[in-house]
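Please, why this fold?
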Amino acid sequence: MMLVFVALTARAIDEYQFRSGTAVLKGCILNKPADEWNIISVNAYDLFTGEELVYTIPVAADGTFEGSIHLPHSQSVLAEDVSDIFIAVGDTVEVTKDAAQDAYEGVTIGGHSTSADINRLWPEVKKHYFGGKQLFINGLAREDMPKWKRKMVKLIDTVIADIEADRLPLPAGSSACVKEVMSASLLGELLMAFMMNYRYNITGNNYANIKVSEYGEYYDFLAGRERWLLDNPAMLLVMDSPDHLFSYTGVYIMIDIAFFPHEEGESQAEYYRKASSAITTRYGLKNVGFMQQMVLCRNALREDRLSPESDPDNTAEYVAGIIPLITHPVIAYHALDRYRQYVKERELKVVEQKPMTKGDSIFQRIIEPYKGNALFVDFWGMSCGPCRAGMLEEREKVERLKDQPVRFLYICDEKDGPREHAEKWMMENNIRGEHIFVTHEEWQLLSAKFQFNAIPFKIGVDKDGNIVAYDAVSK
């Protein structure tokens, strides 16, 4: 079966924007302080699985930097404190950032590659259609939603009409890749606005509040526009928050894939087929092709199913379940390639001893004083509301386990949570445990080691120093 799929996808995977490989990010940090901006942290995603990829690029004393990044496919990445940057596989992107200006300001993109053209053109194209305003309105009243929705649908139709007539505001001679990225980014931005409105203004950010009848009616604009919004492979290339686009689509449009009633004895393939049919029926759609298959792929190959602790038989069942429904060659290739990697990792008998990285060294230094204890390790920051809420909820657990060989380590980036401010909050709220502050550079190295760019992020360490599930350390 795998050989058949690979043969079918050989041609499609060679398309410039969908191939995997390396790209180069280089440039200079102007006005670099001697003790800051020593590392640039780059966050990317494998959009076919939802896996987060974190890379670090060293910055020289004179501010120059250059590093290779391996990407599963061309995409927009986030260079922390610098900018969202589109990088096509095989390209070199040149970035200049003025450290004297605030984060995400004072950035220029140089060079003459496809990627450079896309990065320079996107702000102006976006402004042309959206006027520099945020499409989503937090706190939009129910009575104002019909007017807002009509306005958004009209914008969608305007963009589609301009794409079809080849009249996007782009320089003459712009490549097909540039046009695809601009088109998908505009449509992706509009679709995200609809999903964010549903998430924050209708459900109140609570999945339990989702009503099937309500969201079927809310998304009625999808019918007739499937080709552009739901069956569009170029959505992989959107400029702003590509992972959010696919994550939100899974939860707020194709929620059946994860939450459809599962009958006893029903195979995973049968379940996926019924859930997929329910989606098209609800919205009156003819085809949800690409986006639905992406959500199926991400559900079958999500992080917990690819982890070393996962049940390989369970993972195999989920992969087998999606195979009959994955007809898009690019998705088929990436899904099977990632599953093949998982199998190789599981079956590997000899593990090479890799040299310790700086991130490894920092983490070992942090946990060494607590050797022999099981550790709850919580990466948090003062600007993160869920982080603080989680710490408050954990106070009872900390108290309950205080006489056990267990320690709670709360690790904070000094840049995000200045020590004096953070310690004051912890003291006022009786947050016990080990309060550990690291420099921003150390934080970036730790995020690269554990592959996270969002907090709260939690891991567990057993008494032997092995990384385990966070809730497993007290068992």
